[in-house]
Amino acid sequence: MIPTPAVGVVCLKDDAVLLIRRGTPPREGEWSLPGGRIEPGERLADAALRELQEETGIEARLIGLIDVVDGLFPDAGRHYVLIDYAAVWTAGEPRAGDDAAEAVFLPVEEALRRVDWSETRRIIRAACDMARAVA
């Protein structure tokens, strides 16, 4: 498996976080963060905002880099290097687009219950901490 660079975005609006239900493998049907592959020549932050807009129709302001996570999906033959950002909502209403089956803002605790992958839960918590620190 050749690693694929990708971005993820924890978009916060008041006390809610934006989640998507994945419409394609890997983890099809599961709740996750908006994000996707970085296009050749694209800056990381630009990729994060583009993926957010394409998958959810939401616009946001990035507030910081959270972490870099290995997304290993051997059953799907994929290895993503996920570069996760925290963002604050600025405009738009969630709508599923691109490869997302659903997009919705959920209270943080509800979002944490819906997400299966422990790394995603950790990233959401870290984004909430970051948002409190910059507020």
TrEMBL record:
Membrane-traversing stretches: none
Family indicated by similarity: Belongs to the Nudix hydrolase family.
EC number: 3.6.1.55
UniProt cross-references to InterPro entries, sorted A to Z: Nudix_hydrolase, NUDIX_hydrolase-like_dom_sf, NUDIX_hydrolase_CS, NUDIX_hydrolase_dom
Keywords in alphabetical order: Hydrolase
Enzyme category, top tier: hydrolase
Pfam family, one: NUDIX
CDD domains: NUDIX_ADPRase
Alphabetized PANTHER family for the sequence: ADP-RIBOSE PYROPHOSPHATASE, DIHYDRONEOPTERIN TRIPHOSPHATE DIPHOSPHATASE
Reported cofactor(s): Mg(2+)
Name by which UniProt lists this protein: 8-oxo-dGTP diphosphatase
Nudix hydrolase domain ranges (all copies): 2-129
GO molecular function annotation: 8-oxo-7,8-dihydrodeoxyguanosine triphosphate pyrophosphatase activity
